[in-house]
Specification:
- By secondary structure, the protein is an alpha+beta fold.
- It folds into 2 domains: 2-231, Rossmann fold; 244-365, OB fold (Dihydrolipoamide Acetyltransferase, E2P) (Beta Barrel).
- The protein has helices at residues 44-52, 100-105, 115-128, 144-157, 174-191, 202-208, 226-231, 236-241; strands at 2-12, 17-28, 33-37, 59-64, 67-71, 76-77, 85-88, 162-166, 195-199, 211-216, 219-224, 246-256, 261-266, 269-274, 285-290, 296-297, 307-318, 322-329, 332-339, 349-354, 360-363.
- It has a 6-stranded mixed β-sheet, sandwiched between helices. A 5-stranded antiparallel β-sheet has the order 2-1-4-5-6, covered by helices on one side.
- It is globular, with a radius of gyration of 24 Å.
- The two termini are 32 Å apart.
- It binds adenosine-5'-triphosphate and magnesium ion (MG).
- Magnesium ion binds next to helix 1.
Length: 378
C-alpha cells in the first residue's frame, strides 16, 4: 500500500518558480493499479518521481507498506535504492550490449542473492512477460514492445513492493500500444502488483486502471473508477479531457435537490440533467456534457421523459460497427454515434433524444484549449 499526503514540489530557477505538485494526496491499496492522468505539465511525472525517491519534495509525506519513505517535517528521506520500488519509463532503458537474460539478471546482481536464485527469478520474470524463448537474444534485436517487456521483467525480478510506470507505452505504435495495454493489465492483475501508472492518454487510463486520479496544474481534480470518471465526471475539465463529449452551454433554471437533477435553459431549448456535485443554484452558468453514444434518434412520438433537440446532418460516416454523425443544432455542432444501420443522408432533418441521467450538468469554467487559459499548465 502507498499513501501520499499533502505532497508539494517546487522547481525554482532564476526567472521562475513552478509549483509542479501542489498538495497532492492519494492512497494506492495493495494490488491496485492507480493512474495519474492529466495534460502535459500537470505534475504526474514529478509526483511519481517523489514516490520513487528521484525528487525531494518540499512538503508532505509518503508511506510504502506502512513505513515512511519521505516525511519532510520529520526530515525523513529514504534513498531510492532502499525503497524497493520497480520503475518502468517511456524509454526502454535496456542495455544494448547484453542479452535479454543479462538485462533482467543484472538488476539482481550485488544484492546478496545466489546465482541459482538469480536464475530462478530472472526466468520467472521473463515468463511473466512471455519472453522465455528470447532469453539468449541480444536485447537490441527485439521489437519496441519486446524491449519494453524486458524493462518490465527487470522491474519485476527485483520483487518490488510496488511498480511505478511513467508513460511506458508512448514510444510504441498504436497497434502495439493496444496489445501492451491488455498485457500490462493481465500482468498487474495476475501478479497482484500495487502500481502507480502515469499517462496523458485517457483511453489508456480507462483501460488499465482500478482508479483514475485526474490532475491539473499540480493538483488533483477528482478521482474515481474508470466507468464513473467517464460516465459521471464531476468537473467540466474531466468531462472535456476524457473521451469525446458534447458540451452545451446553459444556465440553471430550477433545482430539484432531492432528485439530484436540475433544469437548464440552453440555446437549444430547455433540458434536464444530473448535478453530480449537488451544489448548483438557479442562474449558475453551466455546460451539459452528453457523450455521443448517449444520443439517440428520437421516435415520432416523444414519451416526454427525455431531452430532445432538432438538428441537420452535416456529415455521417459509416465506421463498421457504428455510424458517426455530425449535426448542426442551432449554432452548435453535435457529435452522435448511432447503430450501424442508421441511414442519415446529408442535409436531412432529425430529432435527437437523450436521457437526463446521461446529461451531466457541470459548472462552467475556462478550458485551456478554448483560448482563455486557466491554471498554470503549459
Ligand atoms: N527539473 C525541472 N526543473 C524545472 N521545472 C520542472 C522540472 N521538472 C518538471 N518541471 C515543471 O514542473 C511541471 C510538472 O512537470 P511534470 O514533468 O511533472 O509534468 P507531467 O504531468 O509529467 O507532464 P508530461 O505529460 O508532459 O510528461 C511542469 O511545469 C514542468 O515544466
Ligand atoms: Mg511526464
Amino acid at each position: 500500500m502507498i499513501i501520499v499526503e499533502n505532497l508539494t514540489k517546487i522547481f525554482a530557477t532564476k526567472t521562475e518558480r513552478v509549483v509542479a505538485v501542489d498538495g497532492v494526496g492519494f492512497t494506492v491499496e495493495a494490488g491496485e493499479m492507480v493512474t495519474l492522468l492529466g495534460p502535459s505539465g500537470c505534475g504526474k511525472t514529478t509526483t511519481l518521481r517523489c514516490v520513487a525517491g528521484l525528487e525531494r519534495p518540499h512538503g508532505g509525506r509518503i508511506q510504502v507498506d506502512n513505513s515512511p519513505v519521505v516525511d519532510v517535517e520529520a526530515k525523513t528521506f529514504v534513498p531510492p535504492q532502499s525503497r524497493n520500488l520497480g520503475m518502468v519509463f517511456q524509454s526502454y532503458a535496456i542495455w544494448p550490449h547484453m542479452t535479454v537474460y543479462e538485462n533482467v539478471a543484472y538488476a539482481l546482481e550485488g544484492k546478496k542473492i545466489s546465482r541459482a536464485e538469480i536464475k530462478k527469478r530472472t526466468m520467472e520474470a521473463l515468463e511473466l512477460v512471455q519472453l522465455t524463448g528470447f532469453a539468449e537474444r541480444p536485447a537490441p534485436r527485439l521489437s519496441g514492445g519486446q524491449q519494453q517487456r524486458v524493462a518490465i521483467a527487470r522491474a519485476l525480478a527485483g520483487r518490488p513492493k510496488a511498480l511505478l510506470f511513467d508513460e511506458p507505452l508512448s514510444n510504441l505504435d498504436a497497434r502495439l500500444r493496444g496489445e501492451m495495454r491488455s498485457e500490462l493489465r493481465r500482468l498487474q492483475q495476475q501478479v497482484g502488483l500495487t502500481s502507480i501508472y502515469v499517462t496523458h492518454d485517457q483511453s489508456e487510463a480507462l483501460a488499465i486502471s482500478d482508479w483514475i486520479i485526474v490532475m491539473r496544474g499540480g493538483r488533483i481534480v477528482e478521482r474515481g473508477r474508470p466507468t464513473e470518471i467517464y460516465r459521471t465526471p464531476h468537473s467540466l475539465f474531466t468531462a472535456h479531457f476524457i473521451g469525446n463529449t458534447n458540451l452545451i452551454r446553459g444556465r440553471v433554471d430550477a433545482v430539484d435537490r432531492a432528485a439530484g437533477m436540475v433544469k437548464v435553459e440552453t440555446a437549444l431549448g430547455p433540458m434536464s440533467g444530473l448535478d453530480p456535485n449537488g451544489d448548483l443554484k438557479d442562474g449558475d452558468a453551466v455546460r451539459l456534457s452528453i457523450r455521443p453514444e448517449d444520443m439517440h434518434l428520437a421516435g415520432d412520438a416523444n414519451d416526454g421523459g427525455g431531452n430532445v433537440i432538432a438538428g441537420r446532418v452535416v456529415v455521417a460516416t459509416f465506421q463498421g460497427s457504428a455510424v458517426e454523425a455530425e449535426l448542426a443544432c442551432g449554432g452548435e455542432t453535435i457529435q452522435c454515434h448511432f447503430g450501424r444501420d442508421a441511414d442519415l443522408p446529408r442535409g436531412s432533418e432529425i430529432r435527437l433524444e437523450f436521457d437526463p441521467k446521461a446529461s451531466i450538468v457541470l459548472r462552467d469554467e475556462p478550458l485551456e484549449d478554448e483560448g482563455s487559459v486557466a491554471g498554470g499548465d503549459d
